[in-house]
Write a structure and sequence with these properties.
CATH class: Alpha Beta
Largest sheet: 6 strands, parallel
CATH architecture: Alpha-Beta Barrel
Bound molecules: zinc ion
Number of helices: 15
Order of helices and strands: HEHHHEEHEHHHEHHHEHEEEEEHEHEH
Helix content: 25-40%
Shape: globular
Length: about 375
């Protein structure tokens, strides 16, 4: 547990350098929308019975957003308004593609096949109508109303090199997960630099060259699914190497989320430390944004998430920085356990209420809108 002085220093240190504004801007960046990690309560039970462990709350609760998840989320976002009369807005860093579980089953799990998100929702609303009927339409409505402004989190939320190697070795855990229309509880990749969920992680540096097609196809798919080109990127899982920024740029990405202190992998486990801040540009002219507020209300860290988050926002505003909140969909998922969703959303609602009371001139904004504002140099 960090003591309060140490915590204060960390909060302030995150805001020492970067783009400045007197405006009270709140961005809420939420990773993982559109991704199927866990299929259903039934699937989780089957995985448990097969001995697949729960390593994180993602393995336990992270399912594709259901109709009830979205209904409850929208209710929370619309419970407040900023000084421009705008509701709170999520920037979901979202996936347009998922594993085509049926096609993989038909072909004996020898090859990887993916599908577009509307097809995934269509299948799920047939398989689990209670949870998924109307969910896709509701997600589209949220986008139309500006409550959700999805941006790019990769084509799919998994590392294809690892999946292919696991298929070749007929890995029990991976096959069990796939047979249950899930891709979770897979603890190790066999490489210390690659997480099975991190699409752009690699061992040999040359593996980066394979990512160009993933990026161009992913951004095409994103446009087909969400209705517009993405311009903001946050990689799924671990951090990317900047060598892929060129293909991201060629395919429309102007803004890149990154860490304040990034351990940049150079290949075979060698790392270099890179310092970043919001407003920094790379040699291609793409703009970096660094999330400076952590909000994971269902992660048990033994702290009060409302006051902890408010303190981080306060530090950002004190240094005249926008507050870029980092969160994950899993905090707002109720398909496995409704309690998980109601806890996450009640903390979110409290946070939003306190924000609007404390800073009446607050402005809610999507991450790419903040990027555009910084770009304009205002
Ligand atoms: Zn993610």
């Amino acid at each position: 547990m960090m003591n309060s002085l140490k915590r204060k220093i960390v909060f302030n240190a995150k805001n020492l350098i970067g783009w400045k504004t007197k405006r009270k801007i709140i961005v809420i960046s939420v990773d993982d929308y559109g991704n199927v990690r866990l299929d259903s309560p039934k699937a989780r039970e089957a995985l448990d019975n097969e001995g697949l462990k729960i390593y994180s709350r993602f393995d336990a609760f992270d399912t594709l957003e259901t109709r009830a998840d979205l209904e409850a989320l929208y209710e929370t976002l619309t419970s407040v308004k900023d000084c421009n009369g705008r509701h709170a807005v999520f920037t979901p860093f979202a996936l347009p593609c998922n594993i085509n579980f049926e096609k993989m089953a038909e072909t004996g799990y020898e090859e990887y096949y993916y599908e577009l998100l509307p097809e995934t929702f269509q299948k799920l609303s047939a398989l689990q109508p209670k949870a998924y009927e109307g969910a896709w339409k509701l997600l589209q409505e949220g986008i139309e109303k500006g409550l959700m402004v999805p941006q790019f989190h990769g084509r799919e939320h998994l590392n294809l090199k690892i999946l292919k190697e696991k298929l070749a070795s007929k890995d029990h855990n991976v096959l069990t997960a796939l047979k249950n229309r899930s891709y979770t509880s897979i603890s190790t990749s066999g490489y210390k630099t690659i997480s099975p969920m991190a699409a752009f992680e690699f061992w040999e540096f040359e593996e980066n060259s394979k990512f160009s097609d993933l990026i161009s196809e992913g951004l095409e798919a994103f446009e087909k699914v969400y209705g517009y080109r993405a311009e903001h990127f946050n990689p799924p899982g671990g951090r990317e190497h900047p060598v892929i920024h060129k293909s991201l740029k060629e395919n429309g990405i102007k803004f890149l989320d990154t860490y304040l202190l990034k351990q940049e992998h150079l290949g075979k486990g060698e790392y270099k430390r890179v310092f970043n801040y919001t407003g920094k540009k790379n040699h291609l002219g793409q703009l970096y944004l660094v999330r400076n507020v952590v909000f994971e209300p269902t992660e048990n860290r033994g702290l009060d998430w409302v006051s902890y988050t408010l303190k981080q926002i306060e530090a950002a505003f004190r240094w005249n920085r926008p507050a870029i909140i980092s969160s994950h969909r899993v905090n707002f998922c109720g398909h496995i356990d409704e309690e998980n969703r109601s806890k996450g959303l009640s903390v979110l609602k409290q946070l939003l209420t306190e924000i609007t009371e404390r800073w009446p001139d607050v402005e809610f904004m999507a991450a790419n809108q903040l990027g555009a504002l910084i770009e304009k140099g205002e």
